[in-house]
Specification:
This protein has 76 residues and is mainly α. It has helices at 2-23, 27-48, 56-75.
Length: 76
């Protein structure tokens, strides 16, 4: 039931936005809208199906931790 509700909501969102974007020939905006809508769908379905997804904060921590250490050694 929840999955059906999600499908209905995302279909409604696309049905309301896409015709205007096509009519006005806003191709870049439609690409961005479609990409964000797909990402939102995937995350919503994963949440409803109790699929564990990695936390994006851990990726940022792995990227910026070496820079932080380098800056801290320069400031000491």
């Amino acid at each position: 039931m929840t999955i059906l509700g999600l499908i209905l909501i995302f279909t409604l969102m696309a049905a309301l936005e896409v015709p205007r974007l096509v009519r006005d020939k806003m191709w870049r905006e439609m690409t961005a809208f479609s990409g964000l809508l797909i990402i939102g769908m995937v995350l919503s379905f994963a949440h409803v199906l109790n699929i564990n997804l990695p936390n994006p904060t851990h990726l940022l921590y792995a990227i910026f931790r070496p820079m932080t250490k380098g800056i801290m050694t320069l400031l000491k």
